Amino acid sequence: MPIVNHTVLRNFIYDIYRAADGADEDARIVSNHVVDSNLVGHDSHGVINALNYVSAMKGGPSADRMEIIRENATSAVIDGHRALGMVAATKAMELTIQKAEVNTIGAVGLHQCGHAGRMGEYPPMAARAGMIGIVLLNGGGRFMHPFGGTSRRLPPNPVAISVPRREGEPLLLDMTLSVIAGGKMLVKVARGEEMPEGWMIDSDGIPVTDPNDFLNRTDDTAVMPLGGFQFGHKGFGLGFMVDAIAGGLSWAGCTRSEPTRGGSGIVMIAIKIDEFIDLDVYVQEIEYMIEWVKSSARLPGIDEIYVPGEFEERNLETRSREGIPIEEPTWDAIVEKAKELGVDAPQVL
């Protein structure tokens, strides 16, 4: 498996996007996003998807396509007009933060944009500005079954929340309401690995462990809601309500056979902390909670209790130092596309 330095990989993917007629800002935002996803350990949202965005680079800068169709002091709805999702979502969060800075709370809905990648990328933007950041998405492919059902009906509908810390990176919760994100099954396919039981079932409720069935048996398999057979009503219920908020408010439309505007609606919220409590007091409360939680007795074999975002931080430290592992099929496909576009591939370990 090739091991690639993150700076080398970042520049390589950027060069591919530029060679594909991508605007400088589009190429930079998307290449950073996919490489940063690998850096923090979310390979399912990393360069395994990099080639999916090549064709969307054409058509001029994404920011120029975006249109605000409804707006007031605290909120807005944006039609992305098929802009690159990661660019559109970045711009939407920037607008959300601007509104919260002036009016305590900002909320922006976004629809009609491409795949926006890892939702955990966006809430920390608000947290670094002294705010609470929240992102809800009704998207990711309709592959989760409802609790008590077996048919594919809902997307994984991720929710991401970030709050600032006194020092260091913000805390970050980034999770799907299905037991697993679709991209993690694609990673299993690329690596030739089986899925564990509990990720996916067939129409009779029998566990499915071949990740290829995620793509090849769409009519009789489905991914389970978070909580599985016993507590899946919680993941399903949360996923349903995220869909109601993100799909409804964004104008994308809630999930059905053919959503109103194609689904994949995003709602972003920012809350300015020091309008409620002094920021230094707030972040101290966060540190008190972290200290208290980490003081718990640990199970055998557990060296450390992680709070939300620390797992990603540890991966960032390790992979920044040691490089990013990329499965052979993914690397070979990227190199082939680079060759097609006249971009030289870097040497890797």
Care to describe what's here?
A 7-stranded mixed β-sheet has the order 2-3-4-11-5-6-7. A 3-stranded antiparallel β-sheet has the order 9-8-10, with no helix packed on it. It has a two-stranded antiparallel ribbon with strand order 1-12. By secondary structure, it is of the alpha+beta class. The protein has helices spanning 6-19, 24-39, 62-65, 85-103, 123-127, 182-191, 213-216, 228-250, 279-294, 310-322, 328-341; strands at residues 3-4, 67-71, 75-83, 105-113, 131-138, 159-163, 171-175, 200-202, 207-208, 221-223, 265-272, 324-325.
Q: By helix and strand content, what is the structural category? A: alpha+beta
Largest sheet: 7 strands, mixed
Distance between the termini: 8 Å
Proportion of residues in helical segments: 25-40%
Radius of gyration: 20 Å
